[in-house]
Amino acid sequence: MQITTTFIAGQVLLWLGFLGGSLASVFRFEDPAAPWQTIPWGQYLISAAIGVAGIILLRRDKATRNAQSAASETGLESVRRELAAAAERVSELKSNLEDFTCEEVLAFIDDKCVTHLTEFADGRMVLAHRFGSSVYATIMTEFASGERYLNRAWSAAADGYVDEVEACVDHAHTFFQAAVQHLQTAE
Amino acid sequence: MRTGPRIVPIRGDYPEFTWVAILVGWAIGVVLTVSVAYASLMLGFSIEGSELAAILGWGILRGVMRRTSIVENNINQTIASAVNGASSGIMFSVPALLILSKKEEYAELANIDQPLLILAAMTGCVLGLCFVIPLRKQMIDFDRLAYPGGIAVATILKSPGAGVRKAVLLLGGVLIAGVCQIGVLSFMGEDHDWAVGQKIGLPPMLNIAFFVSIMTIGVGYLSGKGGFWFGAGGFFCYFLLSPLLSNFAGSDVAALTSDPNGMRVQLYRPTGIGMLIGAAIGGIIAAFPMILSAIGALRGAGERTAGDVAKKDELPIGMLYLMIGIGACLMVAIAWYVGAGQISPMRAVLMAVLGVLWIWVAGVIVAECIGRTNWSPLSGMTLIAVTLLIFSVKGSADTLTTIRVSIIVGAAVCLAISQASDIMLDLKSGYLVGGIPRRQQIAQFIGTWLGPIIVVWLMVLLHETKPGGMGSDSLPAPQAEALATTIESIVSGDVPAYRYTAGAGMGLMLAMSGLGGIGVLVGLGFYMPFSIVLTYTLGNLLRVVSDATLGKRFGYEVGVPIAAGLIVGEALVNVGDAIWKIFVPAPVAETAAVTSSCLASWYSFLLMGV
Predict the structure, then answer these.
(1) Which of B12, B141, B162 shows the shortest C-beta gap to A140?
(2) Do residue A124 and residue A142 come from a single domain?
(3) Which residue in chain A is spatially nearest to B16 when comparing CA positions?
(4) Which residues in chain A (139-168) have CB-CB distances under 8 A to chain B?
(5) CA distance A43 to chain B (A)
(6) Which of A136, A158, A162 has its CB closest to that of B1?
(7) What is the CB neighbour count within 10 angstroms for residue B292?
(8) Which residue segment(s) compose the domain that B155 sits in?
(9) A138–chain B Cβ distance below 8 A for any pair
(10) Which end of chain B is less enclosed by CB atoms within 10 A, N or C?
């Protein structure tokens, strides 16, 4: 992440404001005669104002960063690649399922799918920056359903329920394909 | 599919939501609830039931009944922990009525309307679940919160299929944590803080003491770098605020800085409670578009590509709204009925609306805290609930009615919050083993009604049979005792509302900063003892170093099963210790010293053996 002057200034102001506000919050014991006077509200409000100034700078920096991230193809390319790879692996699992034993299904999911799923999940926020929360929610809904059904396929394979393995791999395949399709549509 | 060397293929439906899972879940839930509720009264702490239920279910379903379904055991543990959710919710709040009733002016509080209390508790449970279920998508699918306890449960559930290596790692973690915890209990007794700072001559205000708990390191490991802000909150208090206060504050506050526990109880904790509230409200505002998208996704499940499957995955949102409406109406009726003619219908409505709104806000706070750190500020949230309720009734009813109605509605709120955190943890473990959320949500409802019946019955039984009753040496109920004291302060107007407000402003500010989730974590750092925060941070550091040097795959393959084992091992030893303390009479002072010395010798012997 590139550190900008706006980001540093925002962080400094936010934490200075938070420090001042927190200090004001715990500066005195209660005055039983006037409990609400316990907090030095003037100092508190000045600190809060400094913190809010920091928030404005941080949000401006974040907006710029999100715009850059959305415009940059690198992050998106990585997320797109990992999602496509996950969908492809599940597709491969589905087409080879007849020749697999339960043990091989477990090994396939652990060795060939998990890394792509984790990498996609780690980089997923680029989708929100680029396409907004609604598209992000749509893609993540399909992805999470796919991942959950793949987890279920793993559990069913560990227990030996082969019909369930086949059904779950099929569902996972459908959901991952849907996630890939939503991403393509969004682009 | 072909037949493999180890796993025998089975044709047909995969057992998940079965009568066996329900019955075993209820049975384990009842045993857990009685044990944990009793331990809560005797020792003042509660035990999360999910891990224990998963292990017991593993033994009963797989070992005894020869059933082989990971997702069936997941339903079993969901039901059992839902039953157990009532233990802390009721035992931390309602006994306060019985404790207060020992004073002459409050004697009438002893007359508890048990059916009404059970109805209020059940209503709270249902409301808590209905509010938090729609947030599953946002917290688990979109935000992917860690839920370390959920990972531990999933690791246990998956252990039969995860291969020998992972099972050995899990059991190794259990063994290490078990041995360490026996050592801690033998050498340190109830005080688990290791005051390193004092030993090396650091100023007491820095509060450098580690909570000696290998489970806490495991929890920190599972949370990873996402939990760092929790540590930052603690460091902020004792490394920045305390030194500043010791130099610039008045002499009274400056003097207190050398007593970190006093600082926490009097200043940091109330500010932290405020921060949690402010951060939760800010978090809801900031995440509102995402929450709307999540609810939209629930509504539009049927229109998705795999519509038929997706539609069956979640409970219909309309049904949840309807149940919230019915629950809110019941809360109004309960408040009005307990008010015994003193509380007007409008006040009852105000009280119920406040209670229901607080269930939503506190449910979000607790679900997020559990998701990010595995700790829940349940007692703080209950305290705020009772305070809000007392203020909503104050002036319109006498003190007795005010306390009675506030504690009964407050207990419902407390149970709601407890259920909200429990189901989110269970849904995370369900996600990891591939459980169907709808089935787990129904399982939670199937378990949730039973807990209040058992706990209320147990509470009354113990109060009537133990010499001295609630609050006596034979039944100390430390949490309820603390709540009773606080209620007396609230009734007399002694509430640090100004500090809650100031903290809320700071929490709101952090939540609006756009640095995801830091408000809740920093607030929790203010709220929790620093010794726990420090030990937890060690776990975070371990994960970061392990990911950087050994790779993320090592963390997933090796670190996670060991960390899950650490959580389970320590929890098991703590349960054993609680049972030991309850059923074996405490030795007199001399014998205690001999016993402690013997335990220490046995521990040294055991350690040499290991």
Answers:
(1) B141
(2) yes
(3) A156
(4) 140-142, 144-145, 147-166, 168
(5) 11
(6) A162
(7) 14
(8) 19-196+283-520+549-609
(9) yes
(10) C
**How many independent structural domains does chain B possess?**
1
Residues A187 and B37 sit within 8 Å (Cβ to Cβ): no
B222 within some domain:
no
Taking CA–CA distances from A149, the nearest residue in chain B reads B434
Q: Do residues A54 and A105 both lie within one domain?
A: no
Return d(Cα B280, Cα B224) in angstroms, integer. 22
Please give the Cα distance from B386 to B355 (Å, whole number): 9
Task: Evaluate whether B211 touches B534 at the Cβ level (below 8 Å).
Answer: yes
Side chain identity at residue A42, one-letter code: G
Helix (H, G, I), strand (E, B) or coil at A100: coil
| 8 A C-beta contact, residue A146 and residue A154 | no
Out of A159, A165, A168, whose CB is closest to B69?
A159
Q: Is residue B307 part of a domain?
A: yes
Contacts of B434 in chain A (CB under 8 A): 148-156, 168
Please give, rounded to a whole number of angstroms, the shortest distance from the CA of A139 to a CA of chain B: 10
What ipTM was estimated for this complex? Answer: 0.84
User: Which position has the token pair 């499957």?
Assistant: B309
Cβ distance of B499 and A25 shorter than 8 Å? yes
The answer to whether A70 contacts chain B (CB < 8 Å) is: no
Looking at B40-44, B280-284, B285-289, which range is the least confident one? B40-44
Q: Tell me if B434 and A156 make a contact (CB, 8 A cut-off).
A: yes
Judge contact between B396 and B344, C-beta under 8 A: yes
Interface residue of A98, A155, A177 to substitute, partner B, most B CBs within 10 Å: A155
**Chain A positions in Cβ-Cβ contact with residue B294 (cut-off 8 Å):** 137
**Residue-level pLDDT at B70:** 93
For the record, the structure tokens of B102 come out as 């020992």
In a domain, B143, yes or no: yes
Last residue of some domain: A70, A97, A123? Answer: A70
- Structure letter (DSSP) for residue B211: E
Distances B404 to B392, B400, B464 between C-alpha atoms, Å: 13, 6, 19
Whether residue A101 sits in one domain with residue A44: no
Interface of A with B in 167-186 (CB under 8 A): 168, 171, 174-175, 177-178, 181
Please indicate, yes or no, whether residues A65 and A86 belong to a single structural domain of this protein: no
CA distance B1 to B79: 33
Residues A34, A95 within the same domain: no
- Express as a percent the part of chain B with pLDDT over 90: 24
What's the pLDDT tens digit per position in A36-48?
899 999 999 999 9
Exposure of A34 by Cβ count < 10 A (0-12 exposed, 13-18 middle, 19+ buried)? exposed
Q: At what angle do helices B478-491 and B378-393 cross, to 10 degrees?
A: 30
Residue B45 — very low, low, confident or very high, per pLDDT cuts 50/70/90? low
Closest CA to A160 of A106, A92, A89, A94: A106
Instruction: Tell me: do A166 and A80 sit in the same domain.
Output: yes
Measure A21 CA to nearest chain B CA, in Å: 7
* Spatial contact of B464 and B233, defined as CB atoms under 8 Å apart: no
* Residue range B577-608, pLDDT digits in tens: 767 776 765 554 444 444 444 444 444 444 44
Q: Indicate the residue type of B351.
A: M
> Could you tell me if A6 lies within 8 Å of chain B, comparing CB atoms?
no
Q: What is the largest CA-CA distance in chain A?
A: 81
Question: B210 pairs with which residues across the strands?
Answer: B194
| End-of-domain residue from the set A16, A44, A70 | A70
Indicate if A161 and A77 belong to the same structural domain: yes
From chain B, the residues in CB contact with A57 under 8 A are none
Residue in chain B nearest A150 by alpha carbon: B434
Which residues are paired to A161 by β-bridges?
A: B10
Residue type present at position A126: V
Helix H or strand E segment including B194: strand B193-194
How many domains does the structure of chain A reveal? 2
Judge if A108 and A167 occupy the same domain: yes
Q: Which domain holds residue A167?
A: 73-186
